[in-house]
Specification:
The complex is a heterodimer of chains A (590) and B (242). Chain A is an alpha/beta fold and 590 residues long. Chain A contains 14 helices and 20 strands. The termini of chain A are far apart. Classes of the chains: A alpha/beta (590), B alpha+beta (242).
Chain lengths: 590, 242
């Protein structure tokens, strides 16, 4: 056992500290630099490598932004509110739509992205499900790679301090708890602790519901940000809202390929879903069949699986061959090649798929300037709740992270002008976090991965696509048991440098904490709204009486309250579009 | 299924920046199994101290490349059956980069060279101006498009013998990025790019052996991009000499 105390923590200071290098973190860094005088110290810290971990890079579809041609910010806003089933924070949704227009010009003109063009040289835009205009700017179906590569180059070539493979493990407040003093990290390459003080900190670690058996996010994402926010006592909203993508690849429990997304466009182009008997079934659940929205198709597949009408590995099949294998190969080149590398024939054969946890709508309560209840802490991207309400539209995710990351950079630049000195941390909290991280060193080494699998099974079965009170209560109990088991499971501490097994343990601790909140928030919402579906409360409730859940941990106990949605811009049943505007501008809307 | 009972013989490089050696492990074989799955299985079941790096799992992030039977590959997208030789696989850290520990390398030198090659956009407009209309079929644009899907995985850099022999050489990925920007109508840094790639570590070091293009998992052609830079720097040189 090699336990160290708080005295062994290396201390470091900066002015602005940013956690995460996705769309939010990178834009925060660029804007912080633009909004502060030269000499201001800006530090960006990330659990993996800059721009390489996290999910912005994995964006396939694109970037929603109203750029004229009949489309307006008002229309984008109404689609976002309708898509979120009237739960979004309207001020946040408005700023998202309004600022996306500026951000896309920034991405093209200053950052250097090149998005697909129409023959006349203007930006090409397409319509995703739930949109009433051709609005999604994209770079083929690899939009995230273009956005993150260009942002990464800009950040790497600027005098921003980089802390790579630095995992944040604790938000450390001041002694009186009124403000954030800094963030405690593990330098993963050495295994040593590092505490960084900053006048302002932006957290953009990117949510990511990887506590489900099937999930799409990047392997590094384990809800560390929300777990830290929970421990420091911050309110978290919409925590029951987990978006499932209907078609994750299913290749067995032993491979990391399982859960990864097979793109939405496959169904849009006419792809068929077949059950174990190789029969179509989606029309049993919805008149739109396979072309219904993500949540509806996910529930249809899940229901079919529960009837044991499932494929070899317990999912269903996607079949594209009837569209002509050569056509499929040409139209979905990347997907066909990925399946082929993994040993599957998407163009002509059957590929097993399963609904897969994709995006987390819940997050820290923030205002439209990314400020939180805790002075000095700002949150943007998937870690922040509110912009999407109960459901995120495809194409609004990267718009949200880039818009609000930039906002955070600007606001922090302004706010630190009145912060005269770095704040001193509560050394008791700091020491407790150091101790918490080393807890497994005093126990007999065990199999953390088995516990992770059990958590993933529990969340999938009891807090998943279709939910009931009985199931979620069972989930809460099971999560508590797993948490206890984790605390009895040790990690050998003889070499802590790049020790992934230690990080697996810490990952599991974060996932348990946040899973518990998801289940409790799910119990608190006694209706079915957006991504949250309760078999015992299938009704959506009236839109006028919409509430959102707010979870908070105090003295180790999580309480979930409900707060009424404030309709600050538009009320249910109304619209801000001018009279006589058509319902949709999309031809042959789905 | 009988294939699920079989075992793979896996040899994995263990060590740090200073020294190391290969260690042997036996890993259960499965029908659907990538090299990354094999590495993870060893860490989770046989040796909890094994270090490696991955993120996206689907060939988008470029974090998990390693030497697999001596060849640089994305481990997340390499099926075991493609790499297997006599039921054996050797897995080592990516070539031409410093090792942090075991299979995880320090990619900073690769990215430092990306920046040194002026591999970033040089803006000609601001966010307050409209987005430039660009003909998608324009010849320069088509040339720029050829390299744009690079995910900076460093496979080409690991494959390159010139990098191995000359630590200053910028390498294929950085030079390909420079060529992409050189052809981008929106980029205002053409001369800076040419200056950056014509120095001692620049494009003229390339011997056109073509390993970069051969091993690129995205089927890109950095060698052709470097050839483009060689022509452009030569033209620029003669123009300046006049």
């Amino acid at each position: 056992m090699n336990m160290v105390g708080a005295s062994a923590v290396e201390r470091h200071d900066t002015d602005i500290l940013i956690l995460g290098t996705g769309g939010a973190g990178m834009f925060a860094a660029l804007h912080a630099q633009q909004s502060t005088p030269p000499g201001t110290r800006i530090t960006i810290a990330v659990k993996g490598l800059i721009g390489k971990c996290g999910c912005t890079r994995m964006v396939q579809g694109g970037y929603n932004v109203a750029l004229g041609g009949g489309d307006t910010v008002e229309r984008h806003f109404m689609d976002t509110i309708n898509g979120g089933k009237w739960l979004p924070n309207q001020d946040m949704a408005w700023k998202l739509c309004e600022q996306a227009v500026v951000r896309i010009r920034e991405l093209e003109n200053e950052v250097g992205c090149f998005f697909d063009r129409n023959p006349d040289g203007t930006l090409h835009q397409k319509a995703f499900a739930g949109q009433t205009a051709d609005r999604t700017v994209h770079k083929g179906d690899l939009t995230g790679i273009e956005i993150i590569n260009r942002l990464m180059e800009q950040v790497l070539s600027r005098p921003v301090e980089k802390l790579q493979e630095h995992r944040a493990i604790g938000l450390i407040p001041t002694v009186d708890g009124s403000a954030l003093a800094g963030v405690l990290f593990i330098d993963m390459r050495t295994g040593k602790f590092r505490f960084v003080r900053a006048k302002a900190v932006m957290m953009g670690t990117g949510g990511g519901p990887t506590m489900y058996k099937y999930h799409t996010p990047s392997g590094d994402k384990t809800m560390d940000g929300l777990a830290m926010a929970l421990r420091v006592g911050l309110p978290l909203r919409d925590m029951e809202m987990v978006q499932f993508h209907p078609t994750g690849l299913l290749a067995g429990d032993h491979t990391k390929m399982t859960g990864t997304v097979l793109e939405e466009g496959l169904r849009g182009a006419g792809g068929r879903l077949l059950n174990g008997a190789e029969q179509r079934f989606m029309f049993d659940y919805d008149d739109l069949g396979e072309r219904a929205t993500r949540d509806v198709v996910s529930r249809g597949i899940y229901a079919e699986m529960r009837k044991n009408n499932s494929s070899r590995n317990g999912g269903v099949y996607i079949s594209m061959g009837h569209l002509g294998p050569d056509n499929v190969r040409q139209k979905f080149k990347g997907m066909v090649k990925r399946c082929e590398d993994s040993g599957f024939d998407l163009a002509a054969g059957l590929v097993e798929v399963v609904p897969t946890a994709h995006y987390f709508m819940g997050g820290v309560v923030v205002d439209a300037d990314t400020r939180t209840e805790l002075e000095g802490l700002y949150v943007a991207g998937e870690d922040a709740g509110g912009a999407h309400g109960s459901n995120r539209l495809g194409g609004n995710g990267v718009a949200n992270s880039t818009v609000y990351g930039g906002v955070a950079g600007d606001v922090m630049g302004t706010d630190i002008r009145t912060v005269n000195a770095l704040r001193d941390p509560d050394e008791t909290v700091l020491a407790a976090e150091v101790e918490r991280a080393q807890a497994p060193f005093s126990k007999r080494p065990g199999n953390v991965q088995r516990l992770r699998h059990e958590l993933q099974e529990t969340m999938w079965d009891d807090v998943g696509v279709l939910r009931t009170a009985a199931g979620m209560k069972r989930g809460v109990d099971r999560i508590a048991d797993l948490k206890s088991e984790l605390h009895e499971t040790g990690v050998a501490s003889d070499n802590l440098a790049f020790n992934l097994t230690w990080h697996d343990w810490l990952n599991m601790a974060s996932l348990c904490d946040v899973s518990d909140v998801i289940a409790r928030a799910g119990l608190a919402r006694k209706n079915s709204r957006g991504a949250h579906y309760r078999e015992d409360f299938p009704d959506s409730g009236t839109m006028e009486s919409s509430y959102f859940t707010v979870a908070r941990q105090q003295d180790g106990k999580v309480d979930v309250a409900r707060e009424p949605v404030q309709f600050t811009i538009v009320r249910p049943g109304e619209t801000i579009l001018p009279d006589g505007e058509p319902e949709t501008l999309v031809e042959a809307a789905q | 299924m009988s294939s699920d009972l079989a075992e793979l013989e896996v040899s994995v490089w263990r060590g740090d920046a200073v020294s190391g050696r290969y260690e042997d492990f036996r890993v259960p074989a499965h029908d659907n199994q990538t090299i990354l799955d094999v590495v993870s299985w060893i860490q989770q079941h046989l040796d909890p101290t094994l270090s490696y790096r991955y993120a996206c799992r689907v060939g988008m992030c470029g974090s998990c490349a390693m030497m697999v039977n001596g060849v640089p590959r994305w481990t997340c997208r390499t099926h075991v059956k493609v790499a297997l030789q006599d039921n054996r696989i050797s897995i080592g850290p990516l070539r031409n980069l410093p090792v942090i520990k075991d299979l995880a390398t320090d990619m900073d030198p690769f990215f430092d060279k990306w920046v040194a090659a002026e591999g970033r956009h040089h803006p000609s407009r601001t966010r307050d101006e409209p987005i430039e209309q660009i003909d998608p079929e324009d010849a320069a644009r088509l040339e720029a498009n050829k390299g744009i899907e690079c995910i900076n995985c460093s496979v080409c850099y690991a494959a390159c013998d010139t990098v191995a022999g000359n630590a200053d050489y910028l390498g294929p990925a950085a030079l390909q990025r420079a060529w992409t920007l050189y052809n981008d109508a929106k980029d205002d840094g053409r001369q800076a790019i040419l200056d950056a790639v014509s120095g001692t570590g620049g494009c003229h070091n390339c011997h056109s052996q073509g390993s970069c293009s051969h091993y690129c998992p995205n089927d890109l052609n950095p060698m052709a991009a470097i050839a483009g830079l060689k022509r452009a720097t030569a033209r620029s040189f003669f123009k300046r000499s006049k």
